[in-house]
Design goal:
single chain; about 290 residues; alpha+beta; Glutamine Phosphoribosylpyrophosphate, subunit 1, domain 1; binds aspartic acid
């Protein structure tokens, strides 16, 4: 973790906590904390998002609250800075849960969300040979990369962002926002916008936000599985450890989780070598680090 990332994470924790301290709902604290990270360019979300193999930045995000189980999400959204706010608008302004692709981008523009280029500057050289998403060259490159081993796990030092929070009314919320993984085929969508996989929130069990290789997280429906264990009385640490163990043993997955129970107990845990994260309950200074095993 760089000093800049540590500072940004601290700022996000402070903003989230101060909102909660003023009686603002957990959903807003989660959204605002994630907006700080999306804005920063320091993480793989919003302005800092990875691009897909055709050079286009397509982002995923979701948000959920635990009182009424309301949720909203966007997938493969382009050209905006704050996919997390688009997800919240889907939840609050539509009767749907998930909008995808160009119509999701049009929805965000209609809602006047701040814009950014679909294709970040500086990507042109890298992607000039890949502008046709399904050209033989793109597919050959993709196949060569996949054949060379666990490329999908290679991180570029920038991680997906997420947050969980508990407010004064006892409501929990969870959110996540990402630019996906390295070396994605155009149109690839991971776990982040899929409710029950990348995020889940239920006042009867808890709130979970995931990071890691979405292809594995989806197949175990990790966030919901952790919440189900919390509902059965397991502690956050035990619930997360069991599900992450299953992810590794059954499908060789790699992930990290933020898990918060409605009574305030929480755990940050990962089966990846590191995970940049932090927490704050208003006492002392926020804790930030990149190893919580
Ligand atoms: N879970 C995200 C995805 O698969 C990536 C990440 O968390 O780093 O799209």
């Amino acid at each position: 973790m760089t000093a800049a990332q540590a500072g940004c994470l601290t700022a996000a924790l402070e903003i989230g906590y101060h909102l909660l301290d003023r009686g603002v709902p957990a959903l807003t604290a989660v959204e605002q904390a994630i907006r700080v990270l999306e804005q920063s360019r320091l993480f793989n979300a919003g302005r800092g998002s990875h691009v897909q193999l055709d050079g286009v930045r397509r982002m995923d995000a979701s948000i959920m609250e635990g009182r009424d189980l309301q949720a909203g999400a966007v997938a493969s959204i382009e050209g905006i800075v704050h996919p997390i706010s688009a997800a919240r608008l889907v939840m609050e302004q539509t009767t749907h849960v998930l909008l995808v692709g160009k119509p999701a981008s049009a929805f965000a523009r209609h809602c006047k969300l701040e814009r950014q280029p679909r294709r970040p500057s500086g990507q042109a050289a890298r992607t000039s040979t890949m502008t046709k998403a399904w050209s033989p060259k793109t597919l050959a490159l993709y196949r060569a990369m996949m054949a060379s081993g666990p490329v999908l796990r290679k991180r570029a030092g920038k991680e997906t962002v997420g947050a969980v929070a508990l407010d004064r009314t006892g409501t929990v919320a969870a959110g996540a926002s990402t630019g996906g993984i390295d070396m994605m085929l155009p149109g690839r969508v991971g776990d982040t916008p899929i409710i029950g996989c990348g995020v889940y929130a239920d006042n009867d069990s808890g709130a979970v936000s995931m990071t890691g290789l979405g292809e594995g997280i989806i197949r175990i429906a990790v966030a919901k599985e952790i919440c189900d264990r919390l509902a059965r009385g397991e502690r956050p640490g035990a619930a997360a450890a069991q599900v992450l163990k299953k992810l590794v043993q059954r499908i060789d997955g790699a992930a990290g989780s933020l898990v918060l129970a409605p009574d305030g107990r929480f755990v940050i845990t990962h089966v990846t070598p590191r995970m940049t994260a932090g927490w704050w309950n208003g006492k002392g200074r926020p804790t930030v680090g990149d190893c919580f095993r």
